[in-house]
Amino acid sequence: MKQIVKLRVKKLANGQGSYYLDWCQNGKRNYEYLKLYIDLTPNPSREVKKQNEDVEQLAQTIRNQRENELIKSPWGIKKINRYEMFTERLVTLGVNCYDQRKVCELFKKCFGGDVPLVEMDREKILTFYKFLIDCGYSQTTIKGFWDRVKTTIKSGVFDGSVNPDCMRDFPKVKRPAPVVTYLTAEEITKLKNVEWANKESKRGFLFAIYSGLRYCDVRKLKWENITADNFLVFNQTKTQIDAATGKAYAITRLPLNRQAIEIIGERKRPQDRVFKLCANDTVNIHIHEAAKKAGIEKNVHFHMARHTLGVQLLCNGVEIYTVSKLLGHKSIQTTQRYYSNITEDKALDAINKLPEF
Predict the structure, then answer these.
(1) Which of 164, 183, 208, 226 is the most exposed place for a label (fewest CB within 10 A)?
(2) What is the mean pLDDT of the chain?
(3) In sequence order, what are the beta bridge partners of 18?
(4) Distance of alpha carbon 84 from alpha carbon 29, whole angstroms
């Protein structure tokens, strides 16, 4: 039978021969150097002959594997970069962020340097996992790190540079249930009555309490998003806009209550922003200072306004499905994950109110 993938030897200047593969795929000639060498000097010793035979046998085995790939796979032979490092592959997947940079740093620290992707195995994966645990990071942080590692390993398995066995019993890190902090009605009143360093920060934060909007959505809100009958009609940045294309694929229609309407004040031009907020960090400083003046010991920040609305609605008898829709969550499971302790308390209270039979 005619060979599709040919095993060839290239003579080097040092008297050695370098094995390489030669095949045609999709009308294009391809080469793969195997980094396997034999001694081509005349009249080799018996020992050298034996070494040459062993190397040739290994090269033939690889040739057979590549030929099987070319015959069976619709994509043909997958070229593997045997010099690509683990962290090099990692940084090509996803956006540049703290988790990405930190995983690269910790990986090199764990192994005393980088590791070629093709050398990753279950032992190294478990070693790095234990290393992260021993570093003392929280479960949430480790979850973020480990998602990066898993994505990188799966990418290697897909293109054939990592043994699929690496995914067997892959360590799973579950994100812990979030601890939601919120403001009570009394604390909201205190914040309304103290003097703020920035009036727009106060307006934006209080509006978020009554509407449940995130900082990014409050900041970009325009008067054209508020209807004449006081409904908010907008696209939620986090859950309704595609990050890659910037196009919206859903819309939120949210009624405004009396307090929210009082905060936004008199209507202006459609393209004018309703709030002129500073950067998120700056607004949070204003919120923290106001909370301190009001005698509130909690670490108050902008996103707490959103949680405050969710908790207040649930505590006042609004069903969780409605709360989920008002907050713009993608699914009711998201709402349950954040407010499970609140719904459990309400369930316990309902059970305790049952009459004795």
Answers:
(1) 164
(2) 85
(3) 10, 37
(4) 23
User: Can you tell me the distance from the alpha carbon of 47 to that of 53, in angstroms, rounded to the nearest whole number?
Assistant: 10
97 and 245, same domain (yes or no): no
Q: 6: which strand partners?
A: 22
Mean of the pLDDT values across residues 207-220?
91
Q: For 286-312, what is each residue's pLDDT tens digit?
A: 999 999 999 999 999 999 998 888 888
Please state at what angle helix 98-111 crosses helix 139-159, rounded to 10 degrees.
Answer: 80
The identity of residue 272, as a single letter, is: D
Cα separation, 199 vs 195, in Å, equals 9
Please report, for residues 129, 142, 143, 207, the alpha-carbon distance to residue 139 in angstroms, rounded to integers and kept in the order given. Answer: 12, 5, 6, 33
Q: Identity (one letter) of the amino acid at 29?
A: R
The answer to whether residue 116 sits within a structural domain is: yes
Is the confidence at residue 131, as pLDDT, over 80?
yes
Which of 259, 256, 245, 183 has the alpha carbon at shortest distance from 213?
256
Domain residues for 256? 185-352
**44 and 19 belong to one structural domain:** yes
Tokens representing 36?
Answer: 């396997």
**pLDDT tens digits along 8-65:** 999 998 889 999 999 887 778 888 888 889 999 888 899 999 999 999 998 898 888 8
Residues 236 and 328 in one domain: yes
Task: Answer yes or no: is 357 within a domain.
Answer: no
**Structure confidence by residue, pLDDT tens digits, 133-175:** 999 888 888 999 999 999 999 888 877 788 888 888 888 888 7
Q: Which residue's entry shows tokens 């066995």? A: 165
Domain boundary among 20, 37, 72: 72
The answer for residues whose C-beta is within 8 angstroms of residue 330's C-beta and 6 or more apart is 239
Same domain as 109, residue 36 = no
Residue 184 and residue 315 in contact, taking contact as beta carbons nearer than 8 Å: no
How far apart are alpha carbons 66 and 78 in whole angstroms?
9
